[in-house]
Structures are given as C-alpha cells and as structure tokens.
Amino acid sequence: MKRGHIRLQGVVLLVGIALMALKFVAWRITHSNAILSDALESIVNVVAGGFALYSLVLAAKPRDRDHPYGHGKVEFISAGIEGGLVMMAGGLIIWRAVQALLEHQHLHALDTGIALTATAGGINLIMGLALRQRGRGSHSITMEASGAHLLSDAWSTVAMLVGLVLIKLTGLLWLDQFFAILFAIYIIVTGLRIFRRSVAGIMDEADLELAAEVIAELERARRPQWVDLHNFRMIKYGSVLHIDCHVTLPWYYSLEEAHAEISAIEGIANGMQEREVELFIHMDPCVPASCGICALRDCPVRKAPQESTIPWTPQTVAGNAKHHA
C-alpha cells in the first residue's frame, strides 16, 4: 500500500510540472493575472508535491532505534509546509492583482488561454479526487493535503474560467483582477485549514470523534471481567494509531489469563480500524473499592455487592485513577 502511495504521488508530481508549464504558456499568451494566479499556485503544487513525495518515502521506512514510533510524524510536517506555501501563493496573487490594477494591463488571445487553462484544471480535478480518496482510505494526511490542494486549484480554475468568459463577453478588464483576488482568498483559507490539521497532528491533539468510536466499540464488547478502563489516550503517528490505557482485571487472574483478556481488547480495537493500531495496555489489579462497579457475578473473592455500572465514554475513561462506586 505504501509503495502504491509513493508511485501515485510521483505521477502527480510529474504531471504537476507539465501543468505548471502549460499554465505559464497560457499566461504569456493572454497576459491575464487570473491565469497568472493559477500558474503561480502551480509552482506551489510542484514544490509541495516534491516534499510530499519525500515525506511518503520517509514515512514508509520501518521503525529503528532512533525512531521507535516510526517516521509517520513527517507527514504532519509535510502538510504544514504545504499549507504555508499555499497561503504564500495566495498573498503573492493578491499583490500581483493589485499591481496589475494600477498598471491597467490588457488581455490577449483569451480563447486560447481559456482552452489551455481548462485542460489543466480538468487534470487537476482528476488527480485531486484520486489523491483525496487514497488519503482518506489509508489515513494519510500527506495524500489528503495534496488532494485538497489540487482540488482547490481545480475549483479555483473553474471560477477563473467563468471570470474570463465574463471578461470576454463584457469587456470589463478589471474583472480579471477581481477574480484573481477572490481565488487568492479561497487559496489562503484552504492553506489555513491544511496548516491547522498539521499543527494538530504535531501537537498530538486528540481526535475526539475517533476516540469516541473506539471507546464505544469497547463498551459494546465489554466483558464482566473487564472491571474498569481509565487513563485512555490516543495519538496519531502519521497513519498509525497509538492507544494507551489502563484496564482493571480481577487481581487473582494468572498472567496467562490476564494476557488473554488484554489480547481480546487489542483485537477489538484493531478489528474496527483499517489503519495500523498499536496498543499499550497497562493491567491493574482490582481492589476492594472496585467491587461496587464490578459485574463479575461469580467472583470468589468479592468484598461487596455491585452497586452501579460506570459506562465507558470519552469522559469517564480519561481520568488517571481507578473508578469505584
């Protein structure tokens, strides 16, 4: 799968270089700043695509002594750089559009420019959809970011083409700069979103929605001997999901019996995820205070009857202390 990601990103990079050249040809023919804005963003596409390819190659490397959790974090760095480059391109487009307004530039050969730009936009749309689908399916933020970037490029091209057609029909040349600025604002917002996700990944921000799904599945499959779950934490290393938690089991279980229960929990977490899941589960022995929440009916050493059941939710399992009635 990872080799397939690398091949696909390599193809996208090569096609991106060809499309960049095509857009600059369209700009030289028409002198349109809207087309120039599209061409400038293509430079970002190529640079970001190159770094994305490098990050996928690095993320695919196996764990080693210096990187015991693997190299997946580089995907967040790649997405962050891509988001920053996208925002930079948006700022450059606005500056160029304002400059063109002051200089009263004229447009030429719009028909040719529209045809060339439409071709490039259609190819970007196809590549963007393919990358986004592959990224979501494999939980690769690098491929998702590349796909989102290419899709934003494609949709801005569509809007730009609408603007060029209006310019051709109305003769209002200032519309060229107006649409260029609109594209730039859209590009900057897209870059901010990509950058925000990358920072969240680097800072190990919890994915509350995904954590809630995992916890809910464990609650549905919960066994009476799984007395308690607490200190639950989940972080991402690229496409790999790491889960740490404490599970309270009957204190009299043998090491073999306790290991079997932990393996069952690991199987549930891995079975519901398409990505690789790594679990670090700490086994805690139950204490007399645990009896009030224990549902194990045939416990031979029970000190008190069960008084209540604590459901496993993102709120109840986050604490670092054992639960009790």
Fraction of residues in H or I helices: 55-70%
At the fold tier of CATH, the topology name of the largest domain is Alpha-lytic protease prodomain-like
Number of domains: 2
Count helical runs: 8
Number of strands: 3
Sheet with the most strands, sense and barrel status: 3 strands, mixed
Strand order of the largest sheet: 1-2-3
Low-confidence stretches: none
Helix/strand/pairing class, anyone? mainly alpha
Oligomer, anyone?
Answer: single chain
General form: elongated
Q: Helix and strand string, N-terminal first?
A: HHHHHHHEEHE
Q: How much of the polypeptide forms β-strand, as a percent range? A: 5-15%
How confident is the prediction overall: mean pLDDT? 80
Index terms:
325 residues; mainly alpha; Alpha-lytic protease prodomain-like; Alpha-Beta Plaits; 2 domains; three-stranded mixed beta sheet; 63% helix; 9% strand
In short:
The protein is mainly alpha-helical and 325 residues long. The chain is 63% helix and 9% strand.
Write structural notes for this entry.
- With 325 residues, the protein is mainly alpha-helical.
- It has two domains: 2-202, Up-down Bundle (Alpha-lytic protease prodomain-like); 208-293, Alpha-Beta Plaits, CATH 3.30.70.
- The chain is 63% helix and 9% strand.
- It has eight helices and three strands.
- The chain has helices spanning 2-30, 33-59, 74-103, 110-138, 141-170, 174-202, 208-220, 255-271, and strands spanning 228-237, 240-249, 277-285.
- Strands 1-2-3 form a three-stranded mixed β-sheet, with helices on one face.
- The longest helix has 30 residues, at 74-103.
- 38% of the residues are buried.
